[in-house]
């Protein structure tokens, strides 16, 4: 009899209570964290929708709505890569020669024959670590959007005049407007006491561009596109009340 009892204990099904605790623990964990995670996702989705709606609404409200483009003057370009906009200016005019501030010796692939120079402003880390969209990381994206971050100016010398197309829009402005735009750009660069810009060495994407330390913080409500939109405002051109998206900027210079 004792032998049978021992054999029964040896070969009987083990106690299932510990195994039942696993799904129970998972359920309790989900009750505590799962609902919170779903609430976070729902909140993020609502914020995204509100942000887009605000961008579309405020982007459709014009500033300097009575502006009429000059028929003669200095031609600049506003360019768009689908996400990010830049300002492209002549290298030299009667008002400024950009080579006096952006030294050609710092641009190995550029020379005195280059006709234009492009300016963009944005998140410093994003610029440094994301030469192409495939290089974008979740950490960089979240940090640049949800936390005020350091900024940089991206400068690129361009070999020949641009041609108008969907992504390159010419704008004719007066000398007074150009002077205001130049001052806006100059004020965005961090400068040494002697007035020289602060070059960030070795961070360009190729031999015709460079990065410089910039003023201002990048965040969800002050983006690269709102900087270009600010340039339009500064020179009295028609602009959007707020322009977080590139197509909002381009709409103002096309209309």
From TrEMBL:
Keywords: Membrane, Transmembrane, Transmembrane helix
UniProt keyword Transmembrane present: yes
Pfam families for this protein: DUF2459
Transmembrane regions: 36-58
InterPro entries attached to this UniProt entry: CHP02117
Protein name (database record): TIGR02117 family protein
Organism: Pontibacter indicus
């Amino acid at each position: 009899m004792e032998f049978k009892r021992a054999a029964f204990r040896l070969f009987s099904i083990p106690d299932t209570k510990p195994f039942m605790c696993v799904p129970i623990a998972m359920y309790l964990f989900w009750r505590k964290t799962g609902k919170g995670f779903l609430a976070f996702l729902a909140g993020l989705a609502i914020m995204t929708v509100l942000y887009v709606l605000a961008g579309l609404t405020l982007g459709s409200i014009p500033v300097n709505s009575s502006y009429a483009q000059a028929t003669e003057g200095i031609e600049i370009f506003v360019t768009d890569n689908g996400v990010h906009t830049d300002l492209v200016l002549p290298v030299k005019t009667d008002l400024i020669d950009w080579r006096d501030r952006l030294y050609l010796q710092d641009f190995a692939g550029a020379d005195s024959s280059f006709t234009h120079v492009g300016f963009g402003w944005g998140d410093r880390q994003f610029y440094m670590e994301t030469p192409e969209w495939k290089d974008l990381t979740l950490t960089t994206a979240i940090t640049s959007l949800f936390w005020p971050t350091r900024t940089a100016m991206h400068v690129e010398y361009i070999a020949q005049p641009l041609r108008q197309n969907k992504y390159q829009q010419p704008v004719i402005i007066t000398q007074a407007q150009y002077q205001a735009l130049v001052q806006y750009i100059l004020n965005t660069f961090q400068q040494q006491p002697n007035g020289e810009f602060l070059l960030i060495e070795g961070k360009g994407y190729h031999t015709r561009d460079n990065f410089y330390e910039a003023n201002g913080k990048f965040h969800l409500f002050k983006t690269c596109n709102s900087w270009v939109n600010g340039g339009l405002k500064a020179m009295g051109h028609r602009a959007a009340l707020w322009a977080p998206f590139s197509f909002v900027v381009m709409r103002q210079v096309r209309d």
